[in-house]
Amino acid sequence: MRSARLRLLTILALGALVLGTAPQVAAQAVRIKDLVEMDGVRSNDLVGYGLVVGLNGTGDGLRNAPFTEEIMQNILERLGVNVTGEQFRPRNVAAVFVTGRLPPFGRAGSQIDVTVSAIGDASSLLGGTLIMTPLNAADGQIYAVAQGTVIAGGADAQGAAARVVQGVPTSGVIPAGARIEREVEFDFTRLSTLRLALREPDFTTAGRIEQAINAAVGSAAAQMLDAGTVSVDLRQTGAGSPARAVAAIENLPVQPQRRARVVVDQRSGTIVMGEDVRISRVAVSQGNLTLRIDEAPLVVQPNPFAEGETIVVPRTNAEIVEEPGIGLAEVPGGTSLSEVIAGLNALGVSPRDMIDILKSIKAAGALHAEFVVM
């Protein structure tokens, strides 16, 4: 226990010495366009309900998906084929949802990518073709029409008594599979004020964006409203038009500030942390207990030609093994989390044990960062 404590303290001291004497690297400057969303410059979600045909017997079972038969009847009747009262049970069609995004300033005639996903009991969309499907926005209007061959990202094979599936063959994409038919009614040239919405609200970052814009245009055109919004008076930028003003300010470099945060994924053992995470003075002790139970029943039989019966005598071996862990080690105050992780890695602590240690440090109030568990 004493040797583990000395090793951890030595590693932390060396890490603090090296990192403390090294010059601090300045935060990387980021363009304003990568930090904010601009008012009016946004995409719109589209969704449609359609039919994929041409499947090799992997479509919907119409008994379990009656809506597939209904949409197939509607499509055939629109094409002039009367199927009223007919009984058909094909296995080469599947009902799907088609989703896509209408990009900002998307013009009629432009093409966009769409995603096709089965909603019935179809086992695969490989080799299928999406029939013309209108795509609606939240206002119920049709903005695009999709059609084309589905590219599914999986494989499905089966035999008489076994089946193997790789990936998700019930979902696929159609690159440039939808054509825009209606444009969003938005006149960007009439804007006099542009609001910049920060993707990660922060007062310091918003203040730096305000300063960068005002310094670039030479006037007080930008004003920080709150931690997540910066308002820009486009008339004071001197650019002549809103589009020119946005082009002039969106590439200005700004050094963003973020809250100290630690993100852990318990399923994969992944730990991601920011450079501003700090730990106060705290003592750490960690060890593992393993409980092992082995069952070895013993069968006892009577001698030949003797009266009696066969019985099973239980035999159980139970033991608790304490695996080597970290003894009580003291972490000095002001230590960065990267130094603690480096020390734990050098002692051979597994990522999952490291996550448990970080949870305990956070519960003790010594980890000064937002702790996010996925």
UniProtKB/TrEMBL annotation:
Gene name per UniProt: flgI
UniProt lineage: Bacteria, Pseudomonadati, Pseudomonadota, Alphaproteobacteria, Rhodobacterales
Source species, domain of life: Bacteria
Family: Belongs to the FlgI family.
UniProt source species: Alloyangia pacifica
GO molecular function terms listed in the Swiss-Prot or TrEMBL record: structural molecule activity
UniProt entry keywords in alphabetical sequence: Bacterial flagellum, Cell projection, Cilium, Flagellum, Periplasm, Signal
Residues passing through the membrane, by range: none
Position of the signal peptide: 1-27
This protein's name: Flagellar P-ring protein
